[in-house]
Amino acid sequence: MIDYEVFEREIEKGKIKNSYIFCGLDEELIKDGINVVIKKTLGVDTDDFNLIKIDGMKTNFDEIMNACETFPLMSDKKVVFVYRANFLRDKTDEASKKIYKSLKEYLSNMPPYTVLIMYYLFNDKREKANKNKKLISLDKSITVVHCDKLRRDAYIKKINDIFKERKKNIGKAELIYFSEKVQNNFDIIKREVDKLISYTIGRDINKEDINLLISNSGEEDVFDLVELIAQRKIESAMDVMREILYKSDQHMLIINNLERQFIRLYEIKTGLASGEKVQDFISKFKLPKFICEKLVSQSHRFSEKQLIELIKLCVKTEKNLKSSSIDKTMEMELLLINTLTVKK
């Protein structure tokens, strides 16, 4: 069993196996890997003659086997692509178990001219490739590629490749900023890249464009997180943080939003002290009235001194998160615990 980065390195060396199973949560990342194998096997101008697609939800073993056995047309190779191959899940019905059992026996006798590719999506983050008995058993005769979250450098590089594919340059600082702000899901990432490109036709992308176009879907979650910090309910705050991570798995995105929230509250706190009103914050932050009213209400829960210390904690945590040698979730939990030491 290999991860996506090992798979990419093998492809770069020209090592194409005769069968693959892709699995994970990010379907777009999985499809990218599959498309690379198809193009490397059949060429850039892929014709449908030697690419057979099968719906794994509706198929049976005979259909897969017959597709694999058919000779390629005017080519040395053909690709059989079984998508939504849910019969590979650990727990399935009897029909799926039958497909799996027959396929397992067949894999060692596959014709050399066929490249078989299958994939299925995990139900949630709790599903693990190395806990799936079917995948472990098949790993001896087929290459299983677990498409998990990429390491930071590989993640940023892949996002940069998306910009390059669309023939749009982006500066290094802007690329890193974008990668930390966007959700770690390549379907979402590609749509956000397309939005940025359409908005910045004829000029370079800057941070203001990124802030304007990429929505902070986790802002409500971060508001709740800050509210629990104010109430010193750290165990509940940890539950909320784990839920946010479950949805996005973006530690840096959370800490950036959390830091941003405390900075806003500090600016509101000092602004109120100097006579500013809600209307002033609406203009300043370009936020709806009801959100500014909520922020004003939340600012009353903290002192100026407390907010300064909380911002410092976030900055320290952000710096620590950029190190690849730490447990990022534990670092976030430590941040929440440390908020208890910040006095009003």
TrEMBL record:
Q: Which keywords belong to this entry?
A: DNA replication, DNA-directed DNA polymerase, Nucleotidyltransferase, Transferase
Q: Which gene encodes it?
A: holA
Q: Which GO terms describe its molecular function?
A: DNA-directed DNA polymerase activity
Source species, domain of life: Bacteria
Which leading EC class covers this enzyme?
Answer: transferase
SUPFAM superfamilies linked: P-loop containing nucleoside triphosphate hydrolases, post-AAA+ oligomerization domain-like
Enzyme Commission code = 2.7.7.7
What does the similarity note say?
Belongs to the DNA polymerase HolA subunit family.
Name the UniProt record assigns to this protein = DNA polymerase III subunit delta
Q: Which reaction does it catalyse?
A: DNA(n) + a 2'-deoxyribonucleoside 5'-triphosphate = DNA(n+1) + diphosphate
Q: Where is the DNA polymerase III delta subunit-like C-terminal domain?
A: 219-338
The DNA polymerase III delta N-terminal domain extends over 20-147
